[in-house]
Amino acid sequence: MTKEPGDDPTPKGESDDDHPSSNSTPDAVMPSAPGPDLPPQDAIDDRPPLNQMAVATLVTGILGMGCLTVIFAFVASRQLDRGGGRGRGHVTGGLAALAAWVIVALIVGFAVQNRPAEDSAPAFNPSLGDCLDWNGQRLDSRVVPCGDPHGAEVALVFSLPEGPWPGAERAEARSQAECRERVLRRYGTRAPIVNGQAYAVPPTSAGWEGGDRRVHCVVAAVPGSTLAGRLPDGDTGFRLWGELRRADCFTASLEKKPAGARLVDCDRRHDGQVTHVFELPGEAFPGVREVEKLAGDGCTRELRLVEEPQADLRLTHVTPTRDGWYQNDQRTVVCLALADGEELTESVVRPE
């Protein structure tokens, strides 16, 4: 059939593209984008849930919260026993941490309880004139008969002034200074007996708060020796070397290296006389050799003070020790003129 012009079988408004021919090639299929990676089926967490009380047990145990840790551990254990689940390791860890806290607390408490403290010292309550089995430690001292060999005697008892507790160090310093001063006034020396020394037992803070501000001033024998009988009532004439003054005459057994000598009148028989006394300068102890040199030079310069005696003289000197330098602020050099043979019977020092 002849197709007439204008006879278009395609409806108006449509195109060939809307009606593809049967022999046209179909559209190509586009590949799809890859999807997200999924975990394998056996990697999915199918563990039982973690017990929250067990977690609380671990946290409170690490923080040392004792009561809460025990309570949480008890509840968590009951829940785990009944319903299962995870968390027994947390409970064990929390209890272990709490146990560590308890051990630390016990160690610290034991150390504090056994730490020596000024308040832990027992009261020192001997009476004036009591003799003591003294070895320098108040905890070991006890009252003993004065007729037996003993270490010390209570020479003085006095109280420090009222006021707030000054602290252990200041109470010790004030007690020692006051004790030495009172002993010096009573006996004329800091050591009322040969090879003896005065010590102060200060009050404690506990006693101070209770109104006990007493200081016990005891005169004790040097280590390795003991006292026999009671202390003298007053000045016996004994002086430590550093307490002697120029022109003092004395008796002493120098071979025994005593701590001092006994004063006597110069017109009576005596072993020696003080020719000169001076202080060494400086804050630090200069050493034994330097002290000896300074002492020798100083005493030699003052030989003009020595008269020609009837008997021969041996010139020497007594120097401060390191302990005396720092502990008693003792820096005195004492120059001596000793009888070399017969005793002296007159003064060998020219008057000033």
TrEMBL record:
Residues 129-324 form the Septum formation-related domain. Pfam families: Septum_form (PF13845). Residues 1-20 have a biased composition (Basic and acidic residues). InterPro entries: Septum_form. The chain crosses the membrane at residues 53-77, 89-112. Keywords: Membrane, Transmembrane, Transmembrane helix. It comes from the Bacteria. Residues 1-48 are annotated as: Disordered. The keyword Membrane applies. This is Putative regulator of septum formation.
